[in-house]
Amino acid sequence: MDKEEVVSKNFIEKIIDQDLEEGKYAKIATRFPPEPNGYLHIGHAKSILLNYGLAKKYNGTFNLRFDDTNPMKEKTEFVESIVSDVEWLGAKYDGDIKFASNYFDQMYEAAVLLIKKGKAYVCDLSPEQIREYRGTLTEPGKDSPYRNRSIEENLDLFERMKNGEFEDGSKVLRAKIDMASSNINMRDPIIYRVARMTHHNTGDKWCIYPMYDFAHPIEDAIEGITHSICTLEFEDHRPLYDWVVQEIGYEHPPKQIEFAKLYLTNVITGKRYIKRLVDEGIVDGWDDPRLVTIAALRRRGFTPESIKSFMELVGVTKSNSSNDYAMLEYCIRNDLKPKAPRVMAVLDPIKLVIDNYPEGQVEYLDAMVNMENPDLGYEKVPFERELWIDRDDFMEEPPKKYFRLFPGNEVRLMNAYFVKCVDFEKDENGKVTVVHCTYDPITKNGTGFTGRKVKGTIHWVPVHHCKKVTARLYENLVDEEKGVYNEDGSLNLNPNSLTVIDDCYVEPAIEKYKRGDSFQFVRNGYFCIDTKDSTEDHFVFNRIVSLKSSFKLPKK
Ligand code: ATP
Ligand code: MG
Hints:
Residues 457-530 form the tRNA synthetases class I (E and Q) anti-codon binding domain. GO terms for molecular function: ATP binding; glutamine-tRNA ligase activity. InterPro entries: aa-tRNA-synth_I_CS, Gln-tRNA-synth, Gln/Glu-tRNA_Ligase, Glu/Gln-tRNA-synth, Glu/Gln-tRNA-synth_Ib_cat-dom, Glu/Gln-tRNA-synth_Ib_codon-bd, Rbsml_bL25/Gln-tRNA_synth_N, Ribosomal_bL25/Gln-tRNA_synth. This is Glutamine--tRNA ligase. By secondary structure, the protein is an alpha/beta fold. It folds into 3 domains: 11-259, HUPs (Rossmann fold); 271-341 and 469-545, CATH 2.40.240.10; 345-459, CATH 2.40.240.10. It is built from 13 helices and 27 strands. It has helices at 3-7, 11-21, 42-57, 76-88, 104-116, 127-134, 151-162, 212-222, 238-248, 271-279, 294-300, 304-314, 325-339, and strands spanning 29-32, 61-66, 98-99, 120-123, 172-175, 190-194, 208-210, 227-231, 255-259, 262-264, 321-323, 342-343, 345-346, 349-354, 363-368, 378-383, 386-390, 410-413, 418-426, 432-440, 457-458, 461-462, 467-474, 498-506, 518-521, 525-529, 540-545. The structure holds adenosine-5'-triphosphate and magnesium ion. Residues 33-35, 43-44, 46-47, 230-231, 261-262, 269-272 line the site of adenosine-5'-triphosphate (ATP).
């Protein structure tokens, strides 16, 4: 290991180093335990890459386990999307996919064991009473009148709970810990409840279900997980986690470690909030490119590499903070810069006519696919008398330092010739419709030398040899400075989060690419062919990111 790596170890790696050194575990085992109640988002990507990365670095194992102990909100659709997202990120799980629900028998046995040890009891208090008896942060709780039931009675009642003899919510099984604990989680927490719900995996086999805080440590222990990594809100639950694995008597009990969740500025990350946007029809499904679900990021054109390098930049910490969205943009730009073919595309077209270029003539000019990556070779671009250029690249009355087209000025057409503006036409509203130029044949790209210099280079697309496409430009859905919520609790959405441009023109080279491929539209940003809305004949492009950056990598 080189010096650099030693220096950059995060706090979790330091814990693992020590555990291995002390011989606590022979090998490490991590897991990613999503609840299949929604699509994964960029925060989950952090957890996946962290857990997988640690397993890989320490030559350990990494499990993918569905935490499906709450049948209410769970769906097979979510299981499928999660598996494909984890695979897309390149996190390879060991063995089969695991399901917490496959351990229901062992969880039941563990509960029986606790009862036999006098460490759990069946309680008949109503949910309201349980809350009342629990006390507050400043006041201790009160013992339940059912706390001292005999072991035999508890065993009998718990079995009858399982057999469906009691109404939903009428009885619970509670761990017998300490009603006066300063940690409310330790005040006889509920570990099993009666709930008649059909489970997507176990069907109607069970009418009692374990609570998360009881189930999770057992799942980890059964799988031999060594480091159970979760987010900070579980810190106060750790004593209960430790209590469960200790009372059940696992030999090499797993250890819970908490880290800070990933948040992004001006981006909605929580699963609950994303679900609301989807359910209210504000976005076009879980993979709407304006979201930061993994499915949406993938559809927008982000790559697994860009997400990995973003996570490396962000690091792993124990204090909550928000990361700049521009940092994620920086990472995707960096990744695509050498990889993505560059094509000329015009998003806001006006026509340029080269008056002295023969009508009907077409010549094929050479253009490098990517100036920064000569290995990608050359592409032929057809050139003709009529071209589309971007409206921005012509001005009737230019301000100072405007070097593009204006009457009398000469510019370079990218990969082609110098052209000089000689005239222009306007419609009845005063809008420029056509720009007239003349070209100088001797200035052909890479050939003749005139000694003349021009300051501006503009891109173009041949009018009769191009593809018409749709382009979608995005902005963030919310702006924290303007407030994420309105007074009535509704979301204060950015009305410009989506702009659809229907008459864009792209050079014909685009035809040989497929859905999901990404490009740089020169001077306009990186774009990806949408996988959902594109057809064979009509491509829809999502702008992944613009070319300009407001983010600078901090100096080390
Ligand atoms: P959300 O907070 O968005 O509702 P969740 O925590 O309910 O998500 P789970 O399916 O329970 O979603 O999470 C699976 C794993 O992903 C957990 O270990 C959880 O701690 C982790 N995780 C969830 N959100 C983030 C985040 N923003 N940053 C890092 N890890 C996260
Ligand atoms: Mg959760």
